[in-house]
C-alpha cells in the first residue's frame, strides 16, 4: 500500500568490514563488447553504538560492440542488440546516528554518472554529419558524440521503536540530468529560432518525496500499518522552453492504511485502502484484500484482489509541445484530456512443501487496466484537437478503453541428496488491448511461454557447479493484428514471422577458497547459438505523396525488431563470465 523510499540499507556493523567484487566477460566473438565491473562496500562504527558510516561504490565499463550478420546482410542496431561503449560509476555513503536504543537517524547521499559513446551514431544521428559516409551536412539531428546521464540523490530518515509501534520516515531529493542532446533543426525552426540549431538542449528533472509509515500491533491478532506520502516533480524540456512553454510540474500526495488480521492460527486476512490525490485529477481510492490459509503443514493457499492508480507523466499532460523524437524530426505534443490508468489485479496461488526436499508452487493471475495510456500519430483515427495544423507524424498519448493480461506461474525444486538438487520455473502469459469493445491487438510484447531449469551439484564444501537450460517463446513483431498491418509489415512478417523463440544452455562453477574468498565462472550460451542470421525481403518505397515508387532489398532478423524501440533481443554468443569476491 505504501512505504519508505527505496534506499540501500544495512545495519551498522560492530567492527569495520566490507567486501570487494571484481567481475567481467570474455566473449568468444571479438565483435562483441567485453564487460568489466568492480563494486565495493565498507561499513563500520565511528563511535561505538552511537555513530556508524557505510560507503558503497561501483564502476562498470562495456566495450563497444560491432556485431555483423553471420548470414545475409542488414544492420544490427547499436541501440540495443549491438550496444555502444559505455562507462558508468556510482558512489554513495550513509551516516547513521543512534541516540538511544531502538532509535536511528540517518543521512544518505548517492551519485551516479553514465556516459555512452555516440561517435558512430550508435544512439542517435550526430549533428551536421552523414552517419553512413561521414560527410558534413547542414542538419542538426539532436545528438553530440557522447551522451551522459547523471543522477544525484540526498535523503534523511528516521527509524524508531515507539510505545505504539515502529515508525519509519524519510525525506529525499533526487536530481536527474541528460547531457549531449542538442536542439535539432525542426524544433528551432518551428520556434522561429534558427540561431539555436545545434545548441545544447536542457533535459532535467527533480523530485522531492516525503514518506512516513507506522506499524503498530493492535491486540494479539491485528497488525496495523498507516502512512502517508507526498511528492513534487519538476521536469525541464529545452525544446518546450524555446517554444514559450514553462517547466512541467506535478504534485501528488497519498494516505494509506492496512490491517493484517490473524483470524486463526492458520488463516490470515489482510485488508488495505489507499487514497491518492493528484493536482490535476483529484482523489482516487485503491482498496486491497488478501487471504493466506496454511491448510496443512505441507499446503498453503493464498489469493487476493488489489486496485491501483497511475497518473500520466508530467510532460504527457501539457497543452502544446512536449518534445521531439525520431532524431529530432518527430514532434511530440501533450494531451490535457489524458486520464490516469486504473488497474485491478487478481491472483490465486498454491504452495506445496512435502518437508522432505520437494517444494512446488502455482499462481494464476489476471490484470485489467482501464484507460491504458498508449502513443499514436496525428494521422490515425485517434487524432486529438492539438493535432490541428501539425505534421501527420506528430505523436501524442491517449487512453485506450482497456488492456488485460493473464497467465500462470509454476515453480518447483527437488533436493535429491545433500549434493544434488534441481529447480524449474515456467510462466505462461497472454494479453489483449480493447478499443470500443473490439480487440485491436496485444497489450505487451512479453513472450507467451518462458521456462528455465537448473541442475545443481555441490561437489564438496569448496566446489559446486550447475547447468541451466532456459527457453523463451515467440512474441509479437508488430503491434497490431495482421489485418491492420501495412503492406511492408506484411512482407517482413512473411519473411521472418513474429519474434522467434529460442533455447539456451549455461554452465557455471564456484570455488570457495575460504570463508572470505570466492571465485566463480559461467559459460553463457554454452553451444554458441547463432542469433545473427538475417533474412531478405522486398520493401516497397514511397514518395512524399504516399505513392509507391518501387522496391528494394531489405533485411530482417528473426530474433529482434529494431525501429524507434527494440523488440526481442540478440543474446550474446558464447561468453565466459568470471567473478571474484573478497569479504573482510
Properties at a glance:
3% helix, 22-stranded antiparallel barrel, mainly beta, 584 residues, 29 strands, 3 helices
Q: Note the total helix count.
A: 3
Main sheet overview: 22 strands, antiparallel, barrel
Query: How much is the average pLDDT?
Result: 90
The percent range for strand residues is over 45%
SSE-based structural type: mainly beta
Query: Total strand count, please?
Result: 29
Q: What does it look like?
A:
- The protein has 3 helices and 29 strands.
- A hairpin with a 7-residue loop joins strand 1 and strand 2 (35-47).
- With 584 residues, it is mainly β.
- It has a 22-stranded antiparallel barrel.
- The two termini are 38 Å apart.
- Helix content is 3%, strand content 58%.
